[in-house]
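Exercise: predict the fold of this chain.
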Amino acid sequence: MKVDVGGERYVVSWSHTQGGFLPPHIKAISLCVVERVYPAGPGEKVVKEFVAAGEARCSVVDQFCKGTGRRVSMTHALRAFTRQMRSEVWKAYWDMKHCGGAMAVLEAVK
């Protein structure tokens, strides 16, 4: 997910891991990574700088849900951001396609 905050561009991405090397008491882990993107000139590679990461763990007694993992891990990753920055990132999250543009629906109801 790409989001512009305060004149800077950030990329928020998630990865989900189930089973495999995880401890027996953890069913799945969702990892959220926030990176700052610097513009590149023609023919150059885009430069990304790591900013923050957050993790959500799903217990073996819980039902794993990618959406819940995304929200919890992003909440943890955004702790280092200011309130305004967090607000912009959450708005972009709720406007993402998989969320069905939930913010537009909520504003239409008002």
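Check your answer against the key: The radius of gyration is 16 Å.
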